[in-house]
Every structure is written in structure tokens, then in C-alpha cells.
Amino acid sequence: MKEKILSVIEKNSKISIEDLATVLGEKPEDVAKAIYEMERDKVICGYHTLINWNKTANEKVTALIEVKVTPQRGLGFDKIAERIYNFNEVSAVYLMSGGFDFTVIIEGKTLQEVAGFVSSKLSPLEAVISTATHFVLKKYKDHGTILVSETRGERMLITP
Amino acid sequence: MSIPLSKKVVAIKPSGIRKFFDIVVEMNDPEVISLGVGEPDFDTPWNIREEGIYSLEKGQTFYTSNSGLKELREEISAYLNRKCNVTYDPVNEILVTVGGSEAIDVGLRAMINPGDEVLIPQPSFVAYEPCVTMADGVPVIMNLKAENEFKLTKEELRGAITPKTKILILPFPNNPTGSTMDKKDLADIARVCLEHDIYVMSDEIYSELTYGSDHVSIASLPGMEERTILINGFSKGFAMTGWRLGYACGPAPLIEQMIKIHQFAIMSAPTTSQYAAVEALRNGDKYVQEMRESYNQRRKFVVNAFRKMGLDCFEPFGAFYAFPCIKSLNMTSDEFANELLKHEKVAVVPGTAFGDCGEGFLRISYAYSLEELKEATDRIARFVAYIKNNPK
After folding, report:
1. Are B124 and B355 within 8 A, CB to CB?
2. What residues in chain B have their Cβ under 8 A from chain A's Cβ atoms?
3. pLDDT tens-digit profile of B214-270?
4. Which of A45, B16, B61, B105 is buried most deeply by CB count within 10 Å?
5. Which of these CATH numbers, 3.40.190.10, 3.30.70.100, 3.40.50.300, 3.40.640.10, describes B47-283?
6. A12/B300 Cβ within 8 A
7. Run of H or E including B223
8. pTM of the entire predicted model
């Protein structure tokens, strides 16, 4: 049941416990208990809202930074990652295979703010060898949702 | 000058759905929510659309062979073998048609001689009866019952058979009831068909959309493949209604005659759609599975909503329809649908659009988002409560 709950709320975390129970054919109390357990065990780590900030007055800048580091003896990459992800400005950190080590995603109010963070906080870290900052120009699709408006075909109101 | 019209065609009564469609369209009210649509709300999966686009880019814009692309027929054969455990030779036992609808029409025309009786269970899809009539057959209606969950029973079948009976149309999973027939139900029907030498036209267009157990084709039962024409298509399971692509499978001598009608009337099914369909069968399972899971969730929501209103609603295990009963409200299906549209601006199709025995029922399509279904069922609940408090 837990996997089924997750597959529904991954796309629609606003659904009520009662509706969730109905669509899964389960009892509301069982669903509530399963969700409680998954929250406790950090299977469910939070409930976020997908916002298209471009449509608000409050624009944001997103940057994707490729970071190369020297792993620390005995600690590997994790300790360096910790140094990076603890900054509030950082919204995501991934360890990568391939040409660089970390992808760091930063959200800031302005280009300067992001650039300032990279030059004053990220680059000076002892383990960091180099960074390459890529600013996001336009978000087409985020978390499986298409953000750009599309005209969609309409069904007729009544068909056999 | 009088316009030349065929008496046979003029005598056919227009579809009950059409009548209701006109009423809804005439209202032209953006607040109307419709639960009246008999097609998926999902877009065709992108990989399938993309393959259609690619075929156009490559300039694959010519007729295909009359019976359809060889590649597609091979995929259909493999698919049916995998899903339904039936074996059809792609060379001469499969015809690719313009939707399942063409397959129904051509199949009936290829089999019926004037006066042959064709058994049609109702409530069912609106096309069977007129297609039989246009092929000079005699439609014999079998009224299915709510207490049997709208399955066809062997007693009902036996009761309708006469010496003139030639074909049984078997439409399961069913539109509009959502009813399905499992292997045991089908075995009963197959036995009667074998006893009385009746041929079966099995319309399995909703075969991908079952929520209890997997779909079983009557053609997979012993002795039935040679007396069944199996009809299926891409519209429902693969969300490809607008591509207009279906197919018929059956014994070579029958398919051979069907190809004749098809080649003179249609030539060949749309080429772009056929290339897209090859992709659908090769790489579509995952998307069909996702859509099925989504329908299943909505199905549970809708059935629960009607039961909460105090209306009888048997649990449908197929297609994307629920068929709640409104007899307790002392209204006809037509009255209910019209009043509901007027009071709460929800469009549903009266059960009578699918046969007289649909009286007292509504076809509720749940091919809508959960949000839409919630809003619509809230409105219907308000209307039902109003009717209960203000009986006629």
C-alpha cells in the first residue's frame, strides 16, 4: 500500500486522506497510519509546491554549478558535500559520475547574488578545485510538469 | 426534384447520444462539466506521437497494402498472442481498419445474408444495431440485467436463439456498463455457441482496461478461434481515438471477404497512424499500465461517490464507465440527465442511449481528472439530495 500511496501523492500531495483512501480502496485510518510511518522514517521527506516563479513579480535565478573537488582521505566526498549543502542558498547537491564531481543547484534573487555566493563561499572551499556556473535561462518542464503553456486539443462534450 | 434517399438509411433512428449532445452544445455554457465522453482524457503517449511525426518526416505518406502494414500486422499478431493467447497469421488473418467501428461494419457486411439474425446484448455501443440493419440483417436485442451485473448469461443467449440466428455480438468489457466477462462466464457462452453453430463477433476494444483480472478473449477458448471474429484497436487502451485505427482478426476466408469491402470502401487505414501503432505495440505497455492505474483510482472514487449518494452502483471492472441506477428517484434517465444539466450543469448520458433496457441508469465516464470528477460528483450529489427532498 505504501508504494501506491507514494505514487499518488508524488504527483498530488494536496489530496485528502479520505480521497486517497477511496482511490486506493483502503481504509482512511490505514492510509493515515502508513503516511505517518513514512514521514517518521523519512521516506516522505517533505511536501513542496511547484511554483513557476516567472509568472510572479518575484523572479528567481537558478544556476547549475559543476564542481570539481579533491576527495578527503578517509572521508571521501560526503564530508565535502556536507560543507556545501549546509549553505542555505543551495537547493540541491548531487554526486555525479563523469567529468566533474558535484552538481550544485543554487537559487538566488539576482545573478549577482549567485555569482557572489560562488566566488565568496563555494570556490574558496579548500577541497574545491574548480567550478563552472550555468544559469538557467528558461524552465520548460520541472518535476515532470510542463511549465510552458500549451494549447491542448479539446474533447467533444458527449461522445459514444 | 426530390433528393434521392435510401429508405433503409432513412428508417434508421439517429443515435440517442446525438440528441443529448445537441442539447449540451446548444447550452454553450462554459460551466458545464461533462462526464459524457467515451474516450480517454490522456494524450497519446509521446513516443507513439513522435513515431507518427517521424514517419511523416521520412515521407511515408503513401497507401499501405489493403490489409495494413505488414510490420503492424506482425506486431498485432504477437501482441494478441502475448495478451490473449490466440494465434493469428499476420499474412491472411488480420485486417487493419479505420477504428474498431469499421471492423464492426465490414465484418457484419461480410457475414450477413438478408434475414440473418444477429444477437445484440444491450445496453451496448450504439453502432451494432444500425450496422446490422444496414447489412440487411435482423438485429435481435437481448436485454441484460443489473442483477447479473450486465453480463450475458447462457439462459439469456439460449432464449434468443432461433433457427435464423447466425451471429452473436459480444461487447465486453462493455460500454456503457463497465461490465466484464471472465473465463467461466465466457465458457458458458462458448458452449451454447458451439451447440447452436453460432458465430461470434467479439468487440474487445476495451481489453486493456480491466481492473479485476486480466481480460480473456472468447477466441482463446477451445473450438472458438475458428468461429470468432475478434475486433480490437488502439483508441481506448493506447489513448489514440483520433488516429482512427483498429483491426479485425479471424479465419482467412472471412478476412479475405472483409478485405474486399475494405479495399473498395476505404482502400487502407491511415499510414501515419499505422506507423505510430507499431510503436504503440512495441513500446507502449508501460504507458498503458500507467493509464490503467489512473483509471482504476478514478473508478473507485466514482463508484464510492454514487454509493454515498444512496444510489445503487455495481462495481464495474472494465472500460472507463460506471452505470449507476436512479430508479429509486422515480425519474426516467432522460429526465434525470436533462434536469441535472439544467440545475447543476453536469452532462451525463442517459442509459437509454445504449438500448431501452438502459432505462433507469446513467452512463458515467470517469475518463476525467480526479479534480473534475470531484466537482462533478459533488454537483450530482447536491442534485440527488434535492430530488429526494422534493419528490414529484
Report:
1. yes
2. 15, 17, 20-21, 24-25, 32, 34, 36-39, 41, 43, 125-127, 175, 242, 293, 297-298, 300-301, 304, 347, 349, 353, 370, 374
3. 999 999 999 999 999 999 999 999 999 999 999 999 999 999 999 999 999 999 999
4. B105
5. 3.40.640.10
6. no
7. none
8. 0.92
